[in-house]
Design goal:
With about 160 residues, this protein is mainly alpha-helical. The protein has one domain: Calponin-like domain (Actin-binding Protein, T-fimbrin, domain 1, Orthogonal Bundle), CATH 1.10.418. The protein has seven helices and two strands, in the order H-H-H-H-H-E-E-H-H. Strand 1 and strand 2 form a beta hairpin. Helix 2 runs parallel beside helix 3 and helix 5 crosses helix 7. The two termini are about 20 Å apart.
Length: about 160
């Protein structure tokens, strides 16, 4: 999460401290996209209170421009008390895969949206795979890779 904090620290209304509530209003997702491609999102025009629209904008832009399929919809994200941690890990892993070897709006330096070394700890069996479909199922391999990194870090 340290790298995500750095990528989003100068953005209004964004304070990434975890993989759940920090993402609820959609501004952090928009900031990650804006950091890489400022031409895609007018960040200054976003309303912090319009969670559903912010999230949907990020999901739509990420899918259209980067091929990152959403794992939920903006309205669903806004309606939840906080985003599901596993869904966020799966979704953010796609950003990591997309941007890890690219130069973004980071003074020409290679940047990655976030580090796979997070504080997220869980059991792979905590989410039944028979309920996964579409983009969530497609993201499962990414989660397994992150999970292995977390396990390796704990050793």
């Amino acid at each position: 999460l340290i790298s995500v904090k750095k990528q989003t620290q100068d953005y209004r209304g964004v304070n990434v401290t975890n993989l759940t509530s920090s993402w609820k209003n959609g501004l952090a997702l928009c900031a990650l996209i804006h950091r890489q491609r400022p031409d895609l999102i007018d960040f200054d025009s976003l309303n912090e209170e319009d969670m559903a629209e912010n999230n949907q904008l990020a999901f739509d832009v990420a899918e259209r421009e980067f091929g990152i399929q959403p794992v939920t919809r903006g309205k669903e994200m806004a309606a939840e008390a906080e985003p599901d941690k596993l869904l966020m890990v799966l979704y953010l892993s796609k950003f990591y895969e997309t941007f890890r070897n690219t130069t973004g709006n980071n003074n020409g330096k290679v940047s990655s949206c976030f580090s796979v070394k997070t504080e997220f700890k869980c059991s792979i069996s905590s989410r039944p795979t028979h309920k996964m479909t579409g983009p969530l199922k497609d993201s499962w391999m990414s989660f397994n890779n992150i999970h292995r990194c977390v396990l390796d870090q704990q050793r």
